[in-house]
Amino acid sequence: MSLTRLYNSYADQMASQYSLVWESIPYSNGFDPGELEIRMDQAFPIPENVHATYDVFFQGLKRTRQAPLDETAKDFTIPFRIDQDWGLYNAFAKWKAGTFDPETGAIGDDKESRTNLYVFFYGPNKEIKKTVIFEGVQLRSLKIADPDHQSTDPLRFDAGFNFIRYNDTSDIIG
């Protein structure tokens, strides 16, 4: 590779230049979904988008073929900083209570307990270059981090989610 080719190449996508935009927070009585973006300052673990394969053998040779089965892990966990009035955590707790009642075993309405999550990746002038969509996102777990008298870090909680569909083809043309 020549230096000229390197100089003329596109700049790299920076890992920090993204935002998460939630369509809504179910059961949260109007909690502003924009609050989630500023309370999330850790890495966002995008699941591997993968489908199944199978092997065909013939006379000592092996060929791997595509199988019509989505094997993408349908869950992820996001750590959030807890605000001093616990507004974000309480909104998530209401969402979780709407999806499952641990006292009765009743589950909430599946459609009402789901929302969409958009991951926007930005270019150098903050224009959206790529969009990844998690469709039908549902809260499945909450875990408050361990408090520590010696820590100077903010208290966090982990929110575990499942989803129906992962769409990373939103910007593919053709």
Tag the structure with descriptive keywords.
two-stranded antiparallel ribbon; Pnp Oxidase, Chain A; 3 helices; 8 strands
Describe this structure in words.
The protein is 14% helix and 37% strand. By secondary structure, the protein is mainly β. It has a single domain (12-167), classed as Pnp Oxidase, Chain A. The longest helix is centred in the middle third of the chain and has 13 residues, at 87-99. The mean pLDDT is 88.
Summarize the topology:
Blueprint: H1 3-8, E1 18-22, H2 34-39, E2 51-58, E3 61-70, E4 75-81, H3 87-99, E5 115-122, E6 128-144, E7 156-162, E8 165-167
Antiparallel strand pairs: 1-5, 2-3, 4-7, 5-6, 6-7, 6-8
Low-confidence stretches: none
Order of helices and strands: HEHEEEHEEEE
Shape: globular
Architecture in CATH? Roll
Number of domains: 1
- Could you tell me the number of beta strands? 8
| Estimated share of beta-strand residues | 35-45%
Number of helices: 3
**Rg over alpha carbons:** 21 Å
Q: Termini distance?
A: 30 Å
Sheet having the most strands: 6 strands, antiparallel
- Report the CATH C-level class: Mainly Beta
Roughly what percent helix? 10-25%
Provide the CATH topology. Pnp Oxidase, Chain A
Brief summary:
The chain is mainly beta and 174 residues long. The chain has helices at 3-8, 34-39, 87-99; strands at residues 18-22, 51-58, 61-70, 75-81, 115-122, 128-144, 156-162, 165-167.
